[in-house]
Amino acid sequence: MLDMNKAGHVHSIDTCGMVDGPGIRYLLFLSGCPLRCKYCHNPDTWERTSGKIMTVGEILTDIKRYKSYMKFSGGGVTVSGGEPLAQAVFLEALLRACKDSGFHTAVDTSGYASRVNAGRVLAHTDLVLLDIKSINPETYKNLTGVPIDRTLRMLELCHKLGRKVWVRYVLVPGLTDDINDIQHLAEYLKPYDNIERIDVVPFHKVGEYKWQDLGLDYDLADTQPPSQELLELAISILSYQKPSSQP
User: Fold this and answer.
1) 57 near 166, Cβ under 8 Å?
2) Which of 7, 46, 160, 221 has its CA 20 to 30 A from that of 62?
3) Cβ contact 59:41 at 8 Å
4) Backbone dihedral region for residue 91 (phi beyond 0: left; psi -120 to 50: alpha; all else: beta)
């Protein structure tokens, strides 16, 4: 049974997203995140109690205002954060309501959740935008403050349940630009035939001012975006062809 009164903390909403899933997307950013990524451009989403409290019913009513745009473009609803799985019960209720209303659903996540919570959310998710910060456990922990295990378990669970995945990899000079690690990631991802695409995202400092506003130390103040040469190399390594299933 749908719980339209289930409430959660919503940081912000963007009604015309174009890169967080197919078509025009209704983007919902939830508050709360257990990771502390050094390059995070939304540190203002870290605290779970930040943002506005909204019910599933309120959000769904707003989403339906844009239904024609999403239907025409093959779009849908993408829930991001923060880490949306930090509000797993609310997220499950919201995605269930969206699916019952005929919307394509996507979740932009680091995968940091228990297997039980992940499974409940994936039951109502069409596409997972999975942020893999690094395949190297030490680099991942240094970059995020948490272990890599749950991210990799999320990828395995998506494969088991047949959920489509778009992998996102942020290329940060001095942190995630080790070529051996990138090659290792490419090899690790090859067996997962549910991965539709792998996007290499160049590091930027668009959110640096937020760290300053919040009185936080920004360790990457002197880090520059990757060179075009390095970016193209990383893309060439990760953009492999999937083995054909045809005889």
Assistant:
1) no
2) 46
3) no
4) alpha
